Amino acid sequence: MSLPTNPTLCVLGCGTMGRAILSGILDSLNVAPANEPPTLIPKKFIACVSGEESAQRIKEEFNDKITLLVGNNVEGVKEADIILLCTKPQVVKTILTEEGMQKSLENKLIISILAGVTIDQLKEWAPSSTRIIRAMPNTPCMIREGMTVLSCPTDCSKDDRSFSIWVFSTLGRARILDEKHLDAVTGLSGSGPAFACVVLEALADGGVMMGLPREVGLELAAQALQGAARMVLKTGKHPAEIKDSVTTPGGCTIAGLLTMEDGKIRSTLARTIQEATQVASTLGNIQSKK
Ligand SMILES: NC(=O)C1=CN([C@@H]2O[C@H](COP(=O)(O)OP(=O)(O)OC[C@H]3O[C@@H](n4cnc5c(N)ncnc54)[C@H](OP(=O)(O)O)[C@@H]3O)[C@@H](O)[C@H]2O)C=CC1
Ligand SMILES: O=C(O)[C@@H]1CCC=N1
Question: Structure pTM?
Answer without folding.
Answer: 0.95
